[in-house]
Specification:
6 strands
């Protein structure tokens, strides 16, 4: 699954167990960081009701994208409060994802 646990990366669709737990939070359309994706509602504190929801990139992946290194085979060293070596590859199948994550390699 993706870093959020909401997307099955191999199937490229919402991950069933997460959807069952938190509901269908995954939009079928691409939402760019900062664009409204809906509003909060339900049994939450009143101060949060109606809050606009959006997506945002995390620091390392955002750095790869803005630097132009998000291309097949590129290796990017992102350094800040943490360091991450990021390699951009074509989508991986379920077996490849399982092997990498079993070795504590973040795949998203």
């Amino acid at each position: 699954t993706a870093r959020t646990g909401l997307i099955d990366l191999a199937a490229r669709e919402p991950w069933g167990p997460a959807t069952e737990l938190v509901g269908d939070l995954v939009s079928p359309q691409r939402i760019w960081a900062g664009d409204p994706a809906g509003t909060s509602h339900g049994e939450i504190p009143a101060v949060l009701r109606g809050a606009v929801l959006t997506s945002a990139g995390i620091d390392h992946q955002s750095a790869v994208l803005i630097s132009g290194a998000a291309r097949e085979g590129a290796l990017f060293d992102s350094m800040g409060t943490a360091e991450a070596l990021i390699r951009t590859v074509q989508p991986l199948d379920a077996d490849q994802l399982e092997r990498l994550t079993a070795d504590d390699i973040d795949v998203d």
